[in-house]
Amino acid sequence: MAEHPENNQEKPGWADNPTFIRIFIGILTVSAIAAGLAGLNPAWHNPHPHFDVERAPVFFAIYGFVAFAFIVLAGQHLRKLVGRKEEYYDERE
Amino acid sequence: MSASSIFAFFAGNPAIIMMVGALMCIATPRHLASPILLIATALSAIKLSTLGLGEYGAITLFGEQIVTLRLDRLSRLFAIAFHIAAALNIIYAWGQKDRAQNFATLAYPAAALGGVLAGDMITLFVWWEIAAITSVFLVWAPGTRATYVSGMRYLAIQVLSGVMLLAGIVLIFRETGSLAFDLVGLRDASGAIKLSALVMFLAFGIKCAFPLLHTWVQDAYPKSTISGTIILSVFTTKLAVYALARAFPGTNELIYIGAVMTIFPIFFALIENDLRKVLTYSINNQVGFMVVGIGIGTAGALNGATGYAFSNIIFESLLFMAVGAAMFRTGTSKATELGGLYRTMPLTMTFCIIGALSISAFPFFAGFVTKGLIIDGAGGAGMFWIWLTLLFASAGVLEHAGIKIPYFTFFGHDSGKRPKEAPIGMLVAMSIAAVLSIGIGVFPEPLFALLPNQEQIAGYEPYTAYHIIEQLQLLLWAVLAFAVLVLIKWYPPEIPSTNLDVDWLWRVPGRALLSWASGASRATWNALWGIFAGRIHALMARIYAMHGPEGQMARSWPIGFMALWTAVLLGFVLILSFLG
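^ inputs. structure came back:
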């Protein structure tokens, strides 16, 4: 913000409001837990699962969490391998 | 053919109607270009709607009958999607004055449309090449040295695909004696790969951006203009998806190729700073889902692949449009230079989030109703690892397209930029795409009615309790993972950088290999030359020893010694002559 002094007096936007962030994360957490709990109800299970893991009530929740975390935590190291400075190609053309 | 029948032939093909519209905007005043393009698209759509399913425009060429227009359930689905995309792009770029871009804005979709409507391989090849040539104008449109060079690379690769397609057509015609564009299949009855089919398969694979053949997408697309990138994102890869669905459904290799396509772009998209480039990786990932569905080849998976292509054309465009609108107002599409735009671009932000929810396949958005068919197809075929891969890729889609795009454009760190809301044309196009994305999600029946296999889709219910719960579990817990990683500051910040992608192979191990090969060949040469030169030197030394100034053969002889030997020789000759 230092390079934009004209915005120094601006009120924080709604998405930057800590109350909004808390409410958003609260709703997200409650929804995620509710989706997990819904998986415990046998009446809402896939009647014709293709694989045994689908019978586990929270398989998709765990898999989604782990897959996302893995992508972010492992994927960022790809930068060390294929990342170059922004002008890399410009300097060569 | 009489003049009226020639006119009827051309006016009967929606692709040619579109192409005429594109050509007209070159010769008319610039301010009329957008209305002309939209009217031509509308006329083409009207023509398409009046055609029943069937074959049209049959002509005889060199004694062979070719069918220039075939409308069946598969081609009609793609044709409708292409019309929607063309119209959205024209509205988005409303008022655009650049003649070359205006021409390409419709000529390129026209060529792609002609390709999906082609009933024979010759017509397909002609439209395939026209699509390559017309689309390069969009890459060149910014007019910089970088876009010129990139456009040339793009053109070379696209023309290579065309040449391979032609080669495949010739080989297939020699084998079958038919030019009809139908099921080809990669293998013959004995299970061996057919060379003719392989050449055509690779031609489609280049345009479909198979792994390692994909870099032209990231090289060319993000360098185009704002509207150019959106147009490019739709047609070439989807034309290739159509071609694969037509010629190679049920090809096992496609399952694995598609699975790789769904995975590798996720990681490149994570570390990419240019959000338009992130979306080009998203194209690879999304097309991967379609390729897997085509490879599985069951009625459900094919319905899923083609239905997903249809809805993807809309919501992927919507994401490109939203990032394009931010770029139009701020002059950048880099995550490090964006952020906080939600304050002044709330409508664009809303449309972007709708696109993000759609591509992530949240219930009641377009991606949900069709992606499930593909994943279910993998499960139904008993392919556990492919099924797991597609679920993993779904979490990846959420990461780069569902969260990264809206988060870094409109939220994230505040860039301090306070641009105006997007222009009205862009807002109208985005709102239509957003309404369609929600509409398909909430009321999928009209899309289902267009899918190739009606018998299968009639028994499909996307909104079952378990499907919704499974999907919500996967996505909400993935979003929760994102929130946790951000809160504990483990989510990586964006860094201004260039990502080498496959180029890394040539520049790092490739260079090392080249360096090693160069050193090895030098060492081999030196060793061989050492052996050869040693022997030559030894021989020369012996000759020198014999004939050199101090050699045995070069020593000086006394005159008396010579006179003695002369006398001996003369005596010997005398004896011989005496005896004889």
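Chain B has 23 helices and three strands. Residues 509-547 of chain B form the longest helix (39 residues).
thumbs up if we can close this ticket
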